[in-house]
Amino acid sequence: NAGVMQNPRHLVRRRGQEARLRCSPMKGHSHVYWYRQLPEEGLKFMVYLQKENIIDESGMPKERFSAEFPKEGPSILRIQQVVRGDSAAYFCASSPGQPSTDTQYFGPGTRLTVL
Amino acid sequence: LAKTTQPISMDSYEGQEVNITCSHNNIATNDYITWYQQFPSQGPRFIIQGYKTKVTNEVASLFIPADRKSSTLSLPRVSLSDTAVYYCLVVNFGNEKLTFGTGTRLTIIP
User: Fold this and answer.
1) Integer distance in angstroms from the first to the last C-alpha of chain A?
2) Nearest in space to B110 (alpha carbons), one of B11, B10, B37
3) For residue A83, how many other CB atoms are within 10 A of its CB?
4) What does the pLDDT average to over B8-18?
């Protein structure tokens, strides 16, 4: 059973461009979470999705950021008009059910660098 | 959300047992205690989860006293490959957000 897949692993964008980060959860997992990690800091929750639905987006900035988890295909975290402050590692995790009863399994992350 | 406090860093020699303690004074009845390990440039990896008393798996043990206001992750006979950041999380049943602090940076010395 392959683990959580994220691509690309590294992404470089210039200010004002769009960044699209993809996450394929583990087989059988219908819950996906996105986290952001700044250098030397812990992970910060951004958004929680369950197939086709956004359950909790309280950690995601209201402007420029959006996330989706379609019925078919990977989950996408989209950042429009990127700024230097968006440079970070973005991690996706998945679980078969709620995280308090089911473990969240993390992918390797996408490192976004904004020039 | 219950706030956790852990040491910023720890050093240990290879072959020793390492105990990392986490305080969570305002833990709620529905909260579980979970530990993750993170290596540089990788995503966190689940180590162990518990509610009370003691839990043991193939890599670690988790000790939780009766009042549940703290917990201790125990790593037996550490090796250089155990050098990583260890995060203590309190997860609330029904709340899907994991709250990560800065964790404990464990360095194993040969």
Assistant:
1) 37
2) B11
3) 12
4) 96
Return d(Cα B7, Cα B11) in angstroms, integer.
Answer: 11
Alpha carbon distance B4, B88 (integer Å): 7
Q: What is the mean pLDDT of residues B95-101?
A: 75
pLDDT at position A99: 56
Q: How confident is the model at residue B50 (pLDDT cuts 50, 70, 90)?
A: very high
B15 DSSP β-pair partners: none
Whether A105 and B96 lie within 8 Å, measured CB to CB: no
B50 touches chain A (CB under 8 A): no
Q: Which three-class secondary structure string do you get for chain A?
A: CCCCEEECCEEEECCCCCEEEEEECCCCCCEEEEEEECCCCCEEEEEEEECCEEEECCCCCCCCEEEECCCCCCEEEEECCCCHHHCEEEEEEEECCCCCCCCCEECCCEEEEEC
Q: Which residue of A has its CA nearest to B96?
A: A99
Cβ contacts of A100 on chain B, cutoff 8 Å: 30, 32, 91-96
